[in-house]
């Protein structure tokens, strides 16, 4: 990086997502972690730097500019809102020319996260769909047939869209044959949904399989069929 070595300040806007971890956002977390490391590197070489790991920006940025996106982020539970005034206050402090070079332990400012988080159990206790149990489904939810497996997957995906993504109210009537994009599932959420299914149900679903008009019926059929295949093959 060809920059002068006597900069008055060097401030990087990172994200607290690389501290708490967000499902489907590992690539974003990697870049934010890189900025944290760069700040420590510069300080170790006697240069000014700080990486601001910010919570949810609620006055500016993509969350505000994208309809409905801001409502989804608080569902993660650990990101605390950051206002424009709070950000300006932080920048006012770290952009002072009189501020001394930080030490490596203070090169990373973690701003506005909470300790509550999302401590709910994962969708499955073990990565075997045939033993699948859901906290939000009463009674015995073991998948003993393809039909039951599909129903469990469908209800789980709907629960994800209701409680994590806030795409619909809990009591909404869901048309399982409607394309996912009618529920405001954009390309980013499609990637996250595929990753989530892969993690919780232990089967791989490619993003290409659920884009271009895929419905809940198509998603639950794909996942349940593959799990049944694994189960019957003794895997």
TrEMBL record:
Cross-referenced Pfam families: KR
Record GO biological process: fatty acid biosynthetic process; secondary metabolite biosynthetic process
Keyword Transport: no
Annotated keywords: Phosphopantetheine, Phosphoprotein
GO molecular function, one term: fatty acid synthase activity
Sequence ranges assigned to domain Ketoreductase (KR) in this UniProt record: 5-57
Protein name listed in UniProt: PKS-like enzyme
Species the sequence originates in: Aspergillus flavus
High-level lineage: Eukaryota, Fungi, Dikarya, Ascomycota, Pezizomycotina
